[in-house]
Amino acid sequence: MSLSLKAMTYFTTALRYGNIAKAAADLNIAASAVSSAIDQVEAAFDLTLVTRQRSRGIQATASGRTVAQKIERLLEDYRAVMVQGDDLKHAVQGTLRIGYYAPIAPAFLPEILTACLPEDGHVQLHLDECDNDSAQQGLLDGTYDAILFVCDAARPAIAYDPLITAPAYCVLPKGHVLAQQDTVTMAQIAQHPLVVLNRPMASGYYHGLLERQPTAPTIAAYANSTEMLRSLVGRGHGVAILNMQPRIGSTYGADEVVGRPIADALPPLTLAVGYEKDRPRRLVQVFVDACVAYFANPANADCTCVFAGEQE
């Protein structure tokens, strides 16, 4: 037979007072509830733990004193766990595990973390780059406390706050003929070899854009990282399409690339922060609020490439 925390609390309170009526008054419950709790504890151990004396209240037997001591320690441990849990929920400390499918996250995530985390070193970060689907799965199974991901392909069970809408743009070598234009079209892009970001969700999105063109472009290379894609473009292997851009034009190979808005009406992608909204830890909510504030600042709009007239 299992015992509830309530029954154990009533039992130890009764023994502490040595009187059922006084225990009931302290607990603000009926005396019958205290008496019933004593019966439950005795039944659970199949022992006589309390001697009831009509005129002198109640008194613990030797077994009763032993059981009461063990239950008191158990209740103390329970209360300590609950206090620690409350501290964990409300304190800006502990471990923050973030999964991100945001190819240019190194351009903004450290700045966001610097703005929202305390300087006392009480927060340990675990940052994992992953694809869009594994980021969402990681949030659902508890691997991550928060994720940065493309919410256009969000699972129904994922709760999130949108951060920024990023239209597709063209990545070009700095000296490319199309780089001399203010904007480019998909028809112009299709006339040049393409480097395609070969990541789950992204590959399908970019192929979908290309399939709309009457002339199928030549795929020069597939790359599964944004920086490899930019380096290939910078070295002249082709042009590419992305949605978010870093703040610098140089690549790992020291070549220069530029971004040009695409004039066609294309579906954008939306970066969002996913997290458990019902009962977020304080640390998680602080991070989410910092993400929202960062992308709400017009000064940080340079992570997307849009027409000048489209910027708010």
From TrEMBL:
Q: Which SUPFAM superfamilies match?
A: Periplasmic binding protein-like II (SSF53850), Winged helix' DNA-binding domain (SSF46785)
Q: What is the lineage of its organism?
A: Bacteria, Pseudomonadati, Pseudomonadota, Alphaproteobacteria, Rhodobacterales
UniProt cross-references to Pfam families, sorted A to Z: HTH_1, LysR_substrate
Q: Which organism is it from?
A: Ascidiaceihabitans donghaensis
The answer to whether the entry has keyword Transcription regulation is: yes
Entry superkingdom: Bacteria
Q: Where is the HTH lysR-type domain?
A: 3-61
Gene coding for it? hcaR_1
Q: Which PROSITE patterns match?
A: HTH_LYSR (PS50931)
Ubl conjugation as a keyword of this entry, yes or no, is no
Q: What is this protein called?
A: Hca operon transcriptional activator HcaR
Q: Which UniProt keywords apply?
A: DNA-binding, Transcription, Transcription regulation
